[in-house]
């Protein structure tokens, strides 16, 4: 996968509130799954928000946190290093999904905000890697953009936050790209304080599909949890 995240990694957690519904649904489902004992795989762990959710919801289970973007991984490593329990439970993996070497058994998989960066063939390779390692009923939690085919995405507010004397404002917009893709553009404007105004534009590619499409291509059952999050299971 291309590294779409390092250029804006310093701002990533400022848009956390946009993900709160999916993370809350993940927390509720995991907390109810007292039978999970095998490691939980977090693909695209980012700066660690889902890692923290998993750790708080499923005590004592090991977590494999996959994050190939160096800047995002730096924030993740810092967060894990601050807590003795996390240092003992969380293994940070820098590999992309086509390079993963996994244990024979997984208790669950979390893939929030990442599957749309994979082509259909890459996703098929991922299913082939994951499914033999999951027991019947073991969940794969996913979070997707709420678009199932390429469309024009009008500019929307992504973040509007103030830290100290600096104000951080971000927008997101998108347009159809080749085949099933959308070209997404985020724009961060950072102003105020004793610094010049910064404008950072970042482009990424997202393959469009829905939760039911994932169910069909993986052969799994699907249940929607929020407009953007769902769970797949055998």
UniProtKB/TrEMBL annotation:
The molecular function GO annotations come to:
methyltransferase activity
| Gene Ontology BP, a term | methylation
Q: Which Gene3D superfamilies match?
A: Vaccinia Virus protein VP39
Entry keyword Magnesium: no
In terms of Pfam families, this protein maps to: Methyltransf_12
Q: Which UniProt keywords apply?
A: Methyltransferase, Transferase
Please indicate if the UniProt record lists Isomerase as a keyword: no
Segments traversing the membrane: none
Q: Which residues form the signal peptide?
A: none
Q: Where is the Methyltransferase type domain?
A: 41-135
Q: What is this protein called?
A: Methyltransferase domain-containing protein
Species of provenance:
Serratia symbiotica str. Tucson
Lineage at the top is: Bacteria, Pseudomonadati, Pseudomonadota, Gammaproteobacteria, Enterobacterales
């Amino acid at each position: 996968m291309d590294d779409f995240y390092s250029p804006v990694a310093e701002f990533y957690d400022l848009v956390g509130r946009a993900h709160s519904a999916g993370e809350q649904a993940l927390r509720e489902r995991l907390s109810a799954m007292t039978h999970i004992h095998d490691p939980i795989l977090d693909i695209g762990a980012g700066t660690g928000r889902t890692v923290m959710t998993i750790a708080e919801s499923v005590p004592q289970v090991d977590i494999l946190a996959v994050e190939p973007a160096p800047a995002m991984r730096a924030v993740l490593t810092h967060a894990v290093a601050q807590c003795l329990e996390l240092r003992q439970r969380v293994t940070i993996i820098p590999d992309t999904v086509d390079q993963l070497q996994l244990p024979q058994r997984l208790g669950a998989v979390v893939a929030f905000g990442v599957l749309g960066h994979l082509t259909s063939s890459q996703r098929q390779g991922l299913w082939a890697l994951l499914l033999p390692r999951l027991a019947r009923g073991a969940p794969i939690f996913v979070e997707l953009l709420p678009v199932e085919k390429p469309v024009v995405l009008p500019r929307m507010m992504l973040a509007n936050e103030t830290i100290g004397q600096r104000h951080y404002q971000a927008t997101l917009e998108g347009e159809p790209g080749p085949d099933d893709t959308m070209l997404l553009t985020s724009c961060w404007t950072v102003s105020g304080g004793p610094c010049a105004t910064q404008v950072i534009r970042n482009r990424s590619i997202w393959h469009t599909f829905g939760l039911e499409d994932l169910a069909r291509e993986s052969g799994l059952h699907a249940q929607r949890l929020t407009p953007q999050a769902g769970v797949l299971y055998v």
